[in-house]
Design a protein that fits this description.
- With 108 residues, the protein is mainly alpha-helical.
- The protein is elongated.
- It has a two-stranded parallel sheet.
- The two termini are 22 Å apart.
């Protein structure tokens, strides 16, 4: 397990960090295997994700990760970037204003 780059002792300290850099995660490569497993789990087997040869001739020049696959990595990345001590659990309730601005190529 990777230890978080920054630790907050409680929610008050975390709230006080508004506008500050919270930390960094390590890099994680988006592999074709990961994309294929995500496609299997979600049933989204769109060729731009799971058919690298066909995708090479497509609009992105190769296979790309599902937007929701990238989004699903957020808890892992945040957990590596920072932690807040004393929390029993976190629950995701919404993602307001989410937009996928550019594709993430397989291998990135």
């Amino acid at each position: 397990m990777v230890h978080a780059a920054r630790r907050f002792e409680d929610l008050a300290e975390f709230a006080g960090a508004v506008g500050q850099r919270l930390g960094e995660s390590r890099w994680h490569r988006v592999t074709q295997e990961r994309v294929d497993l995500f496609a299997e789990a979600t049933g989204d087997d769109q060729w731009i994700h799971v058919a690298p040869r066909r995708a090479a001739g497509g609009p992105f020049g190769g296979a790309i990760a599902h937007g929701y696959l990238v989004l699903s990595l957020v808890p892992k990345l945040l957990g590596e970037a920072f932690e807040v001590a004393g929390l029993g659990m976190l629950v995701n309730t919404s993602v307001d204003g989410l937009r996928f601005l550019s594709p993430v190529p397989v291998g990135a």
